[in-house]
Amino acid sequence: MVEFIIYVEDQHRSRNFYEKILEMKPALDVPGMTEFLLNENAKLGIMPCSGIAKILGEKLPNPSLAKGIPKCELYLYVDNIDSRFKIALEAGAKLVSKIEKRNWGDKVCYFSDDDGNVIAFAEK
Predict the structure, then answer these.
(1) Which residues pair with 107 in a beta bridge?
(2) Residue 48's closest CA among 106, 92, 9?
(3) Would you say residue 64 lies in a domain?
(4) Do 23 and 87 meet the contact criterion of CB atoms below 8 Å apart?
(5) Which residue, of 39, 46, 96, 113, has the greatest Cβ tally within 10 A?
(6) Domain residues for 89?
(7) Could you report the per-residue pLDDT of 72-91, keeping only the tens digit for each?
(8) Banded pLDDT at 114 (limits 50, 70, 90)
(9) What b/e sequence results for 61-77 when a residue is b if at least 16 CB atoms lie within 10 Å of its CB, and e otherwise?
(10) Where do the H-state alpha helices sit in 23-102?
(11) Which residue has the higher pLDDT, 90 or 52?
């Protein structure tokens, strides 16, 4: 199992957003961590910046200092990119790039969440 964790300012807001665009309920939702089971081998975790800042201490900058600056990209293969594109817009995702055939062969669209994390929906 692999878990990717993104840092967000508002866990509740981000949980609601990702619940909509992923079209699934969280497998775990407790103060300090929300997790979505993407498949049998991968989870997406959502952790508040304040929580990771306590762990990082003075060793690394607080992630909240980079509000709105892209810090990661979630590249998610989907079955119906047109449907996901519409769902993302309705959920309030910020459009970065419309659906296009890319030179690596995938059909992809890009959005960002309120924290600047980039979300790509792709079809082979």
Answers:
(1) 101, 123
(2) 9
(3) no
(4) yes
(5) 46
(6) 2-59+69-123
(7) 999 999 999 999 999 999 99
(8) very high
(9) eebeeeeeeeeeebebe
(10) 49-56, 81-91
(11) 90
